[in-house]
Amino acid sequence: MAAKTARSKSTSTKENGVRVEEGLSLFKSDKFDADAYVQSKCSINEKDIKQLCSYLLDLKKASAEEMRRSVYANYPAFIRTSKEISDLEGELSSIRNLLSTQATLIHGLANGVNIDHDGSPANGVLSFEDNDLSDLEKWAAEYPDQLDALLAERRVDEALAAFDEGELLISQANENHTLSSSLLSSLQFAIAERKQKLADQLAKAACQPSTRGGELRSAITALKRLGDGPRAHTVLLDAHFQRYQYNMQSLRPSSTSYGGAYTAALSQLVFSAISQASSDSLGIFGKEPAYSSELVTWATKQTEAFSLLVKRHALASSAAAGGLRAAAECAQIALGHCSLLEARGLSLCPVLLKHFKPIVEQALEANLKRIEENTAAMAAADDWVLTNPPAGSRHASTAFQNKLTSSAHRFNLMVQDFFEDVGPLLSMQLGSKALEGLFRVFNSYVDVLVRALPGSMEEEEANFEGFGNKIVQMAETEAQQLALLANASLLADELLPRAAMKLAPLDQTSHRTDDLRRHSDRQNRNPEQREWKRRLLSTVDKLKDAFCRQHALDLIFTEEGDSHLSADMYINMDGNGDDVDWFPSLIFQELYAKLNRMASLAADMFEGRERFATSLLMRLTETVILWLSGDQSFWDDIEEGPRPLGPLGLRQLYLDMKFVICFASQGRYLSRNLHRGTNEIITKALAAFSATGLDPYSDLPEDDWFNEICLDGMERLSGKAKGNNGEVHSPTASVSAQSVSSARSHGSY
């Protein structure tokens, strides 16, 4: 089995090698043209290059973020290992010193005792030479007392100098054999003992809250000179911790105090202590990895403790109450102080974000929920009449642009306040979440506007479970229903995107003049916000479709469910035998009248946004025509009914379609869909007539005849001309007699 696996791997390797060799053969050719090769592989245009650059930049950011997360995920293990190695090195050094001291003592004892050849001491006692003491021996005898005096008087610098002097003389005496081994061992023990005593004194003094910065640095430097660098660095960090803990005793968070003040004072203490500790560590110990690692670990621990305090005493209560501004300000204050440490190589903001981000997200969601609920409550009592912004509001200066109903004004004001609060969210990477949440709230508000349309409550009830209060004031008149669309379109197209510009990155907004910003707003808007605006407008289409569907159905059907637009309208014309007074059918007269009324109302409601009003009228006309084009029962009666479509019915249907094209063209809402829909209807009618064996074109007048009747009909219906005592007749009046009263009763204005 193993041999077979080895053979398969060998074969695979050889095959890969052959492929690589074949791929490289192109570059080995003498005829290889580098420029032509690059052109063949890079045949992309400037737009694709820009998209590729944008993709690569996003990939670079994602890669950097992933590397940062990976480093922080494994950093504690690295720090812990480094600390253990440093401690182990210190223990090995201590063991080495102890072994050296013990060997010296044994050697001194062996050389200092005079043993007789027979193995017994002379005269029963140890025998020493009775020479006079030398100056060096006198110094050695006085040296321990001198060290004790210096330590008692806290004369640290002189004590350190005395230690250095003693160690130098001991080294020289050991080399020159001017002192006995026992005396050398005694001196070394005395120095080690007093060094430990001085180190304990320095560590105790350094951790006193009253010790000033200069005194602390001097103590730590002295402790380092004593040869115990790891302990000196640990004492330095502990001293800064003790100092800011002592200063924190004056901070007493209160439920009635402003959380931002507490956060500012606390972050000033903590991050100033971390900054000073970093400065002292670098100044005394340099950039040695072991000390730098210990500093990072200590700073991370202090930041964790700080974030928990801020969460408990400032953020939690604000977030629970939906106080986004208070929560965001607290987080921003802390992040601002923390970011100043990055210049010292300490990137601690991710530690804060880990604790602050979830709780600020909670405040964000609570704020959005409040906007949603307040707007729903306002919609329950909204009279759907457009008014100027409330007196004294910040938007009153642009009153002609900001005419909204009361619930939309409330929604807009709350959104403006919301965006005043979310600036700090950018530093916490919550800008996208804020936009997504606001889109969700706007979508819910549009659902409320849809439910305000008469007739939509029953069929849409199951789709609107998320907005809380289901009570909504009905928009009965056409003016009120158009006001619903004015609300949604103005919010989605102008007010919300303009407010969302406050979330644009600083480098996109800080170096432009106001004129330039207005001129190039569309080009310079953040791509994410462009996509967000597109989604807002697509949500408005939901309301627009519901509006057009309702009015189309009101035109086509009676309250009892009968159709105003049936095949009998046209089929029965050839059986009446009456003279025909050619005029558009009543349903298309009503469609024209409705469009005229709406155009007149929209001229005031959509001032400055005529394009939206035009698209609305276009959509309504399309809805009626596309319904007729796709009504299978209508075409079944035309094509396969008991009575065929006659010449008069064909002419009337052709006239109705020409009438629609004529008034849509005059009103500038003739679309491709509308043109295609009318053409399909005419084509189907001609085909049905041809199926009877007759030539449809022999019974249809010229287009000028239809155009004249259409123009005359538009004039009469618009009140510019009247005939027969002002009455309007239609050859299909016998079939659609109910259409005028039904449509007018629903479209009061």
UniProtKB/TrEMBL annotation:
Residues 730-749 have a biased composition (Low complexity). It comes from the Eukaryota. Keywords: Exocytosis, Protein transport, Transport. Residues 507-530, 721-749 are annotated as: Disordered. GO terms for cellular component: exocyst. Residues 509-530 have a biased composition (Basic and acidic residues). The keyword Transport applies. GO terms for biological process: exocytosis; protein transport. Pfam families: Exo84_C, VPS51_Exo84_N. InterPro entries: Cullin_repeat-like_dom_sf (IPR016159), Exo84 (IPR033961), Exo84_C (IPR032403), Exo84_C_1 (IPR042561), Exo84_C_2 (IPR042560). Residues 138-347 form the Exocyst component Exo84 C-terminal domain. Belongs to the EXO84 family. This is Exocyst component Exo84 C-terminal domain-containing protein. It comes from Brassica campestris. The lineage of its organism: Eukaryota, Viridiplantae, Streptophyta, Embryophyta, Tracheophyta.
